[in-house]
Amino acid sequence: MAEPSAATQSPSVSSSSSVAESSAPGGGGGSPGACPALGTKSCGSSCAVHDLIFWRDVKKTGFVFGTTLIVLLSLAAFSVISVVSYLILALLSVTISFRVYKSVIQAVQKSEEGHPFKAYLDVDITLSSEAFHNYVNAAMVHINRALKLIIRLFLVEDLVDSLKLAVFMWLMTYVGAVFNGITLLILAELLIFSVPVVYEKYKVQIDHYVGIVRDQTKSIVEKIQAKLPGIAKKKAE
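Now predict its structure.
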């Protein structure tokens, strides 16, 4: 009598295992532009940024892109104090005008709707000590990693990596002679909001050419490492 029950249970077990395999990471073929680990709490902010730069919501991305671009262009033409002051004045003009308008409407209609921003005034925006410590701990991980990388590069733990940094900084001197910081930020924003979409559309062609460039770069680096003193000996050990 035990064998039939086992036989009847086996289909449900196999079906549940197949569902688990299909829902496991890497088990199903997701789209290239899909946000990884969408359901986890830890990657909520990263998935929001991912959807933003891939233009999943055109209105939301257009608003963020347009606002930040206007702010950067304003900073290129005016001082930081002027731009911040104008932004605060614009925001206050909108809120004060809306507050006065609603007060007049309530006085004319003799209604008691109350403060128009009461729902937002009642929102709890206090930062708990636990959340603050979590943010600090997360920041410390990145700070310690950056400090370790800086020490490694400037004390020449790996000669090739330090030479790469030197060449990059040398190239940045020419970039700094042509562009200032605000111009670079504007170019970076244009690239951030355009390159991911283009890559998603032409992924196969781009990966092909990037692979060719990577192979050529790897072969050149290996030739340089073979001629540098100490590198070949370190690899042999």
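Residues 135-179 form one domain.
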